[in-house]
Design a protein that fits this description.
Length: 154
């Protein structure tokens, strides 16, 4: 017969709930970020149309820049914004996954700090994540590892 593990204290239970809620919020925020970042595909598409000549821009007069340069500006700026937005979305989704698995404390903390730039929702979520991850009891949950649940009996 295996010994029964000790029952968790109230703080352990609350920390686990807070991490679960933060993980869900990071999943939702990551999905919303990915969705709205996809709008930059329109800029890339429109810039591609200008560069390829599918969207008539008129012929340049002597001394004026070629309108295709304007199309390349759309392609480059839209691509950069798209990659940055999707990168942030992936980081948010990974943070949600790792918060629920209690892994990579430092990565989750850094993403929470970066997320404070995204006003207003990201700021609120980032501050709450920083506050929860700064607790010694939560750090102990991360140190215990992903498979160390103190409140379940196996």
């Amino acid at each position: 017969m295996q010994p029964v593990p000790p029952l968790p204290n109230y703080q352990t239970f609350e920390d686990a709930n807070h991490l679960r809620y933060l993980a869900i919020a990071h999943y939702v925020t990551g999905g919303i970020t990915a969705f709205f970042s996809s709008f930059f595909l329109m800029h890339v598409f429109m810039g591609g149309m200008i560069v390829s000549g599918g969207m008539p821009m008129g012929s340049p007069t002597p001394g004026e820049p070629d309108p295709r340069l304007f199309g390349w500006l759309f392609v480059v700026m839209g691509s950069v914004a798209l990659v940055l937005g999707w990168g942030i979305a992936v980081a948010l989704i990974l943070t949600g996954r790792w918060l629920s698995a209690r892994k990579n404390h430092t990565f989750c903390f850094v993403v929470a700090c970066i997320q404070c730039i995204n006003v207003p929702i990201g700021t609120v979520l980032g501050i709450f994540t920083i506050l929860v991850l700064s607790r010694p009891s939560v750090k102990a949950l991360f140190v215990a590892g992903p498979h160390q649940n103190n409140w379940t009996r196996e």
